[in-house]
Write a structure and sequence with these properties.
The protein is mostly helical and 348 residues long. It is built from 13 helices and 2 strands, in the order ααααααααββααααα.
């Protein structure tokens, strides 16, 4: 069964790329490459700079995710610089490769075990970072659905009518905000873990929860800001609408399992922005891909090569890895004892 799953998800991702690519081709029929180049060239320099600043905000927030997880584990001996470089490399690779939880786990395991963390600690760190990202998506999704319940009507014909109905959207938004409120109250009151079948929600300390609530939306706000600043002023619906469309596009890309959300993200965004000229949308999405995906990916490849070279040199010299202090192992959705048991079993 495990071998079947290893094959089926890449196949689903490839199918999503092919289908979305065909649909995107139909949506963009009649648009020439020259029009896209012209729209790209018309983006003012200061808007490029603002898009670059938004990129820095997004990746800084992702580094904060790692820092919050380390604080939750009680690990304080790792420098901000190391955490930032590790986080940047992790997400730059996983954004392009896809399956961010798994590809991110490999990079983090290599980096953080060199600093003395155990495999179980790295597993908790990965889970908490993923949960923090999900928390930000839920929080911002709830806000935009309550504030702009008619946003999903832009996707009529692509989503079931029950989801594009404004009344349903507002109810869904309220439910999402209710989940966040439950998480906040559970942390403040130190409630017992909430178990739903195999999912276990273990509330962190209030200090960790407050950091999550602040950091969680920042990455998405920064990423959406890249596209917002690259869009022209003519027909621009405003940042809140761009954010709502970005969340819908990003969520669809994640669900599709397509590498980097290629094609799926662009399709949803183009369809949901009818008031903006299509060449301008494509130009803005190219800026997003360039700043958020491609440039970080190239930098991360260099970082990985340099890091692995240094680790090899240290291994040849016989330098030991740093030891980490004992830390509590608890995170949303994970049973620490089960993690340790699996690790010990795999070592036997």
């Amino acid at each position: 069964m495990k071998k079947i799953n290893d094959f089926i998800w890449p196949i689903i991702g490839l199918a999503a790329v092919i289908v979305s690519g065909y649909l995107l081709y139909r949506e963009l029929a009649g648009i020439s490459l020259a029009e896209i180049k012209s729209s790209f060239a018309e983006i003012p320099v200061h808007r490029f700079l603002l898009a670059g600043l938004a990129t820095l905000v997004a990746y800084a927030a992702l580094a904060w995710y790692d820092r919050i997880a380390l604080l939750h584990l009680g690990v304080r001996h790792i420098s901000w610089f190391f955490v930032s470089v590790c986080s940047f490399t992790t997400y730059a690779l996983s954004h392009n490769i896809g399956a961010s939880v798994f590809s991110g786990a490999v990079v983090r395991y290599r980096a953080y075990t060199a600093k003395g963390l155990s495999a179980a600690q790295v597993a908790v760190l990965v889970a908490l970072c993923s949960f923090t990202f999900g928390l930000g998506t839920i929080l911002l999704g709830g806000i935009v659905l309550v504030a702009l319940p008619d946003t999903l009507t832009r996707l009529n014909g692509y989503l079931p009518s029950v989801l594009t109905d404004p009344a349903t959207a507002r109810i869904l938004g309220a439910a999402l905000l209710g989940f966040v409120a439950l998480y906040v109250v559970g942390s403040l009151l130190r409630l017992k873990p909430l178990t739903i079948r195999t999912f276990k929600l273990q509330y962190p300390r209030p200090q960790i929860m407050v950091r999550q609530i602040i950091a969680a939306p920042l990455e998405l706000l920064g990423a959406a800001g890249i596209i917002y600043f690259a869009l022209p002023e003519a027909g621009n619906p405003g940042f809140l609408v761009v954010l709502a469309v970005f969340l819908a596009s990003f969520s669809a890309a994640l669900v599709s399992n397509a590498p980097g959300g290629l094609g799926v993200f662009e399709l949803v965004f183009v369809v949901a922005m009818p008031d903006v000229a299509r060449p301008s949308i494509i130009a803005a999405l190219l800026v997003f891909r360039l700043f958020y995906f491609w440039v970080p990916f190239l930098i991360s490849v260099v970082v990985v090569l340099l890091y692995e070279r240094n680790r090899l040199a240290s291994a040849i010299k016989g330098e030991p890895a740093e030891a980490a202090p004992a830390a509590p192992l608890a995170a949303p959705g994970l049973d620490p004892k089960a993690i340790d048991a699996r690790v010990r079993k795999n070592r036997v």
